[in-house]
Amino acid sequence: MGEEREDDPQKLKRIAAAAYDYENDPRWADYWSNILIPPHMASRSDVVDHYKRKFYQRYIVRTLIPPHKFLSIIGLISQLGSLELGRGLCLIISGGDMYKPTFFTGDSLLIKDPGFTVEAMSSNSSSQPSRPSGPSSTSSMSSNEQARSRNSSSATRSSGTSTTTGPNPTSLRWDRQTIQFSVNAWVFVVAVLAIFPLVPRNLSQRAYRLSLMGTACSCLYSVYSLYGKPRAWNLQALQVYFQSVIATKDFIYFIYCLTFVTSNLCLKFALVPILCRALEHVAKFLRRNFSGSSLYRKYLEEPCVWVESNTTTLSILSSHAEIGLGFLLIISLFSWQRNLIQTFMYWQLLKLMYHAPVTASYHNSVWAKIGQTVNPLIHRYAPFLHTPISAAQKWWFR
Predict the structure, then answer these.
(1) What pLDDT score was predicted for residue 18?
(2) At what angle do helices 311-332 and 357-381 cross, to 10 degrees?
(3) Phi/psi of residue 230, each to 5°?
(4) Which InterPro entries does this chain map to (predicted)?
């Protein structure tokens, strides 16, 4: 009876972890995308359930201690014994339980729930989830049988036999990373075809629009994978949803692609950020999934390593191209291909890029260089421009 009472809280917490709505939590999609496991293991339900419990333990099952209670806990600790507090970590002893906080700020203290534990996942676990309780003899017998079956199957594969017993569970899964790689690789090839000078003009313009459409679809799919869809289709729910995604890099590039794909003006210079984005995604996927391939090590390893080690350079190049496109659109207003609405919308997008955290640092550095070059010339040769420039700056920083 005592064992059942001790196991009841664990069982209830496992049920709560299994019933949690992971699909509508954007943190779960980001957490799962950063777990590097073989594709055949990622398709197994027991592996997914294990990482869901770890996610639930890390992000959901926490206790929030406000500052006034934290001070009383510190007083309790001083009565219980000595305690070292350093770098925001401490050990709180209360009622015989030990609590190890994840971090401490001036506002609150977050601690993990000591009553919820996640068992370590065995590397020899089968494709079916194991029962949490049961006789030890039964579990040992089942593990021995699984080990023997795996040894026999591996021996069969090593001997070179070609017997097939059904569909292969380790076949290629079209998960989110694979879909993104396929789309971005296609975008990279089409964009290179669009900017290649010897390609006919008609084909080049089609490739230009296809590359923008492909990037827009890739960004929209990424936003949907990470943030899902709005919880409701009313104005308040849509406002909350767009406030959460508007400052993300994928949403910014989605608007960027829509701005140029709907315009009659064909600016090949707009493909520079598209090429940099596609190149980063392709190189990252190749390094993570094809590092053991001889073809990759022979031809693609050095370019992929260079791309991943120079992502900052590619981001700065993209920022220069994006700001340069804004000035090109202003110049195009004096031609027969002018589009006032597109120019205004693109400068609104540049303003968003300047303030969004994911692109702010790169755009700030580019605008600082432009200011250092242009301001002395305006002060010396065109002082009458100070008034319109100051008005534009007020709108920009608003």
Answers:
(1) 81
(2) 50
(3) -60, 145
(4) PER33/POM33_regulator, TMEM33/Pom33
